[in-house]
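call fold target=Alpha/beta hydrolase
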Amino acid sequence: MRGLDEAVRSAEAALFSRYRLSATDSVRALPTSGEELRVWRWGSGEPVVFLHAAGLPATSWLPLAAELSGVQVHLVELPGHGLAGPSRIEPRPARRHGHLLVSELLDELSLSSAHLVGNSLGGTLGLWFAAACPERVRSFTAMGVPAPALPGVAVPPLLSLLMARGIGPLVQRVPAPVRLFRVLISQILGRADAANAPRELVEVARLSSRRPGNVRTLTTWLRELDGLRKPRPGSVLSSADVESVRAPCLFLWGEDDPVMRLDRARSALERFPSAVVQEVRGGHAPWLTSPGRCAELLTQHLRNTGTAH
């Protein structure tokens, strides 16, 4: 385990070096659950909190975050991901757990409110929180489908496999070579995003996904959020939830997102009181294919809230 963690840290350092960024991580313990998150913080300006997808590390945001300026970046590594502590979702329903996690995270960061940027699970956590505590969300941005929060999302076959008892954890623990790991993640991210992910990032994700606590976390989160083919009802935003989201919302949709195509999602997105929808090149993590364009649209969105300069 120690050797695996050292290899993850080495890959993280190489990834930060690739983008000429210097940042150190800090561990933040959540008071209610006792879960430990990792947070990288740099820059000054409006606070922007990044919440990653299930199974990806916080450093998956680096190709995008490296393009930003004039903001205070908080890359959050959720429990049971990367080198963060294990997740303890089991004692409570997923949505209540997610809401408490984001609320206590902001408290630990001394932020009364923040701009939230989320991908997949991170997007779902952000939308759940924006509906429950609108006064703490200055703006919200989804990069890729905020699955499973939207109605009509289908669970990808690979995620259904990872939920299966016995075989799912086994698949996660097998040391897949880099080329095979890219093939596997392309089933979720899409071919372009998997191909454009920096090798150092693929290495962080590949190595950290094998940690026993991370294997249990991914399996547990997937089972809590999804059925084998579609999300569990409690994961999907209701009409009342959507109406409670007061923050300006930006949905950056990869034109080849394998989780859900934009034409299937438009009716759900149109229900948000204040939303801008923009299709960009890429898949489920479009900033890996179009980092400059995604950074440009995110910066514009922050400026349009009237709080960023």
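return ok
Residues 2-304 form a domain with the Rossmann fold fold (CATH 3.40.50.1820). The first strand starts at residue 25 and ends at 29.
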